[in-house]
Amino acid sequence: MDSNPDGKLILVVDDEFDVLSAYTMLFEFRGFRVRTAANGAEALAAVRRERPDIVVSDYMMPVMNGAALCGAMRADAALRDIPFILCSAGILPRDLQPPCDSFFRKPVPFDTLLAEIKQLIGRRG
Question: Which residues are recorded as modified (4-aspartylphosphate) (predicted)?
C-alpha cells in the first residue's frame, strides 16, 4: 500500500455516485481523507467548511459545473491557491478561464490521477 502519512484531504466532486464511491475507496486505501460533493455548489460549501488540500472535479454537472466551481474558488482569496484538477468525458473549451491546474479526459487511469495529485499537493508542501 502506497501510504499518505499526512492524511491529506481530497474533495471529489462528481454527479455520478459510482465515481464518488470508487474514488473514495481508492484514495482512502492510499491514506488520504476524502470528502465528496455531487455538484459545484455543494463542493463550494464543503470547501468553505473544511479546506481540502486538493479538489478533483468533474466538468459536466447539474447546478454548478466544474468550470464554474473552479472560477468561484479562484475568485475567492481564501480558496484560490487550492490545487484544482478538472476531468471530463467531453472536450474542454480551450479558453477556460480561470484555468485549472490540470485537466484529464475521462476515463482517467487511477495511477495517473494519483501521481498528479501528489505532484500538485507537493508543490504547496
Answer: 58
| Residue pLDDT, tens place only, 28-44 | 999 999 999 999 999 99
Domain 9-123: CATH superfamily, name plus number: Response regulator (3.40.50.2300)
Task: Give 60-110 pLDDT, tens digit per residue.
Answer: 999 999 999 999 999 999 999 999 999 998 876 666 655 799 999 999 999
C-alpha closest to that of 121 among 8, 23, 45: 8
Contact between 71 and 98 under an 8 Å Cβ cutoff? The reply is: yes
The C-alpha atoms of residue 70 and residue 80 are separated, in whole angstroms, by 9
Strand partners, 58: 87
Query: What is the pLDDT at residue 125?
Result: 52
